[in-house]
Design goal:
Elements lengths: L12 E6 L5 E6 L3 E8 L4 E8 H10 L2 H7 L7 H17 L1
Antiparallel strand pairs: 1-2, 3-4
Amino acid sequence: MSRRCELTGKAVLSGHLVSHSNRKTKRKFLPNLCNVTLQSDTLQRSVRLRISANALRSVEHRGGLDAFLAKAKGEELSSNALTIKREIEKKLAAAS
């Protein structure tokens, strides 16, 4: 399982741990990933995703998973999230 957010694409970054004497040693900056279950209003089912805490706040701010995926770019999304986005778009197109 990769350390990458399924919705925003946030991943591990590398950098330096700098001591008081200014010595630099390599370190990793890990994203704050959470296993969450989000409800899709359009699909009438729940979806399990591994997303960052920042993405969870963004989903809530935009008004749910459906609204977030409608605005999200396809390059940032994982394959799992991309299939969910396509399912939502098909259901909305069939309804209208």
